[in-house]
Amino acid sequence: xxxxxxxxIVLGCVALIxxxxxxxxxxxxxxxxxxxxxxxxxxxxxSSDEAAVIEALDTLNTEHDIQLFVVYVxxxxxxxxxxxxxxxxxxxxxAASAKxx
Length: 101
Known about the structure:
The protein has helices at residues 2-26, 47-64, 81-100, and strands spanning 38-40, 70-72. It has a two-stranded parallel ribbon with strand order 1-2. The protein is flat. It is mainly alpha-helical. Strand 1, helix 2 (47-64) and strand 2 (70-72) form a beta-alpha-beta unit. It is built from three helices and two strands. The longest helix has 25 residues, at 2-26. The protein has one domain (28-100): Diaminopimelate Epimerase, Chain A, domain 1 (Roll), CATH 3.10.310.50.
């Protein structure tokens, strides 16, 4: 019984450490997107799915003149998803503007 209690305490400490440090390590601040329309920093999709997404993005661009960027991240770095997306779009626009100058 004492051993079970010790194991529970150790596992609780490990869980607490992971809860504190792992999200910070996985958090992704808003990105500066280049020309690549698919970014998978979270490892969310397989290689075959990646190919299918890229093909769909190319089709969307060719047939409808819409350039869509798909980004997978493990966390939004403390921001809500809309705020993160807006900051990422702002960074993309600033990078494009700087390149044009």
